[in-house]
Amino acid sequence: MAEPQLSVRSARARALVHRFARRENRSITDVVERALEAYEVREAGREPASSFYGRLSAQSGTDLDLEVVVRESRRTHWGIYL
After folding, report:
1. Listed residue (2, 12, 6) closest to 30, CA to CA
2. How many Å apart are CA 38 and CA 11, to the nearest integer?
């Protein structure tokens, strides 16, 4: 049975995919699939880190410096008692 085909009528898209495929030494199909997967993750997937941390800071209202917390909680360990 024949493989399904994707038809793109843009000369620019065709030129780009051929250039990427040659440069990365991959098949055209692989380049198109990877590009579409990256687009899906970027557009419909995760929230950007900057907006996530901004939203988290606005919700919690506190900002902790973890190094200060660790430094203040640090205690000297004198070893085992023999």
Report:
1. 6
2. 22
For residue 77, CA distances in Å to 23, 33, 68, 82 come to 57, 55, 19, 14
pLDDT in 10s for each residue of the chain, 82 residues: 677 777 778 899 899 999 999 999 999 989 999 988 888 877 776 777 778 778 877 877 676 778 888 888 888 888 888 7
Report DSSP letters for 1-66, one per residue: -PPP------HHHHHHHHHHHHHHT--HHHHHHHHHHHHHIIIIIPPPHHHHHHHHHHHH-----H
Determine the Cα–Cα distance for residues 27 and 17; give it in Å rounded to an integer.
9
User: How close are the terminal C-alpha atoms of the chain, in Å?
Assistant: 77
